[in-house]
Amino acid sequence: MKEHARQKDSHRAVTSESWQLPRPFLVAGPCSAESQEQLLHTARPLAQIGVHVFRAGVWKPRTRPDSFQGVGDIGLEWLRIVKEETHMQVATEVANARHVDKALRAGIDVLWIGARTTVNPFSVQEIADALKGVDVPVMVKNPIHPDLQLWIGAIERLKKAGIERIIAVHRGFAFYGENYYRNKPKWIIPLELRQIFPEVPLICDISHISGSPKLLYEVAQHAARLQFDGLMTEVHYRPQQAKSDAYQQITPEEYRKLIERIDWLQAGDEWRIAVDLEEIRNKIDQIDRELIKVLSKRMQLVNEIGLYKKQHRIALYQPKRWAQVFRQAQQWGAKNHLPADFIARLYQLIHQESLRRQQRIMDDEEE
Ligand code: PEP
Ligand code: MN
Questions:
Q1: 115 in contact with ligand 1, CB cutoff 6 A
Q2: Which of 93, 113, 231 is the pocket-test mutation for ligand 1 (most atoms within 8 Å of CB)?
Q3: Does residue 208's CB lie within 6 angstroms of at least one atom of ligand 1?
Q4: Beta strands of the chain (E only): which ranges?
Q5: Higher-confidence residue: 6 or 310?
Q6: Cis status of the peptide bond prior to 24, with omega within 30 of 0
Q7: Residue 75: CB partners within 8 Å, gap ≥ 6?
Q8: Is there an atom of ligand 1 within 6 Å of 31 CB?
Q9: Angle at which helices 270-311 and 340-366 cross, to 10°
Q10: What is the pLDDT of residues 250-304, one digit of tens each?
């Protein structure tokens, strides 16, 4: 596949020489390529707005077989025309080695791996193998369900194949039943990914999280506050007529207004935030120190109980006592405005540690 190796082109946004994305890095375009006319009518205004990468799916991984499955190979030719006319880079989704081969041959600048593919290590490995020796940026969406390890694994597979320009895309997580979002954001997961790969740019696919135009702004603004590097947004010149994801796409004009409204905290503001927050952060550090001391005192008392249980040959686990501890913690939590599920998780952790300690004390007896 070496023959596909990208030409390096210094004025492009996603270049390999300076792997530093502009911030905000903007990826936008329709869910699916439907016709050349649709792509051009959508792409022209987006290029004016300053979008860096124009997206359009040509092979669509649809959940149900009767949905529109994408236009296929012909869409690659339409994307090439968009690129030629607008000078935006173009991106499409790949789910197997054949897609990779065809997309690279057609001169697609950026590939993306969709949420339904990231879940499958066989598919991700097949794509990674097809990309060996190729210098192309790849956007990796999170898997459909909230499994951080699968997302990490997909990025690792691409890195091992020699792909250096990887962009992580947070598109939210599926769940069963009605909800505010189409895909729940669970922001802690992309933030944990960022801790693991601080060098990998992270953008937010606000369209698949929102599932409706009315949530786009709040999701985008939240991503900006969390220092995401950019956005992926579904834009269609006639959203109502879109063949896929019609209900969540917006017009280029709506996109322009949306992008203008978002307040991006610049990296240079970080020192100011640090200064403004220093006092509060110091107080939090002090409280954390006390919290740890209190926990340690509690665990010493747990040890004493462990010794008593050992001496009197009493069962380690006392369900009635545990129920009481749990109930009163819930009551105290409610009085102090702490959510019940938070207290539940905290006390499960404390109880586990208490049992572990007492188990150790019991085991010592046997030796
Ligand atoms: C898409 O980007 O149109 C798409 C199918 O997204 P996801 O893989 O996030 O569901
Ligand atoms: Mn879509």
A1: yes
A2: 93
A3: yes
A4: 25-29, 53-55, 89-93, 110-113, 138-141, 166-170, 202-205, 230-234
A5: 310
A6: yes
A7: 32, 33, 56, 58, 92
A8: yes
A9: 40
A10: 999 999 999 999 999 766 566 667 777 888 888 999 999 999 999 999 999 999 9
pLDDT of residue 277: 81
Contacts of 49 (CB under 8 A, 6+ apart): 26, 252, 255, 256, 259
Q: How far is the CA of 42 from the centre of ligand 2 (A)?
A: 15
Nearest CA to ligand 1 atom 10: 115
User: Domain boundaries in the chain?
Assistant: 2-267, 274-366
Token pair 């997302």 is found at 151
Give the integer Cα–Cα distance in Å for 296 and 290: 10
Q: CATH classification of 2-267 is 3.20.20.70, yes or no?
A: yes
CB of 171 sitting under 6 A from ligand 1 = yes
Cα of 14 vs centre of ligand 2, distance in Å, is: 22
Over range 103-132, report the average pLDDT: 98
- Residues that place a CB less than 5 A from ion ligand 2: 31, 245
- Cα gap 115→109, rounded to integer Å: 20
CATH of 274-366, picked from 1.20.59.10, 3.40.190.290, 3.40.50.2000, 3.40.50.2300, is 1.20.59.10
pLDDT score, position 275: 74
pLDDT at residue number 191: 92
**pTM of the predicted model as reported, rounded to 2 decimal places:** 0.76
* N-to-C CA span, the chain: 62
Residue 98 identity (one-letter amino acid): R
The answer to whether the CB of 57 is under 6 A from ligand 1 is yes
- Phi, psi of 169, rounded to the nearest 5 degrees: -120, 120
At 4, is the pLDDT very low, low, confident or very high (cuts 50, 70, 90)? very low
pLDDT category, 16, cuts 50, 70, 90? low
